[in-house]
Design brief:
two-stranded parallel ribbon, single chain, mainly alpha, 6% strand, elongated
Length: 99
């Protein structure tokens, strides 16, 4: 999987291929969107940086009839509820830079 870093059509094709391989071997694929980074705007809301990847996963899940765990949307809600000062506590990398 040499090109897994490109969002959009390329990653959609790669994920669809992965789903087909899982099904071929009798597995049940489940997709998970990436958690968002803790980049806050001055207004205290999350500045989306992974929206293209999350949307690509949502689209593939719908097209391929695969269950989806939307960690991206959940992480945004959690971080915004905690706010910029407390949000790092919700991460295993608390204190590490998300930049």
């Amino acid at each position: 999987w040499p090109q897994t870093y490109a969002a959009g059509d390329n990653i959609s094709r790669l994920v669809a291929t992965y789903i087909a391989e899982v099904r071929l071997h009798g597995g049940t694929p489940v997709l998970v969107t990436p958690p968002e980074r803790r980049n806050f705007t001055p207004a205290g809301t999350i500045r989306p940086t992974l929206a293209d990847y999350a949307q690509a996963m949502r689209t593939v899940a719908e097209e391929e009839k695969v269950q989806l765990i939307d960690l991206n949307a959940a992480s945004i809600r959690i971080y915004e509820a905690l706010g910029p000062m407390r949000a790092p506590a919700a991460s295993l990398t608390a204190g590490a830079s998300d930049a």
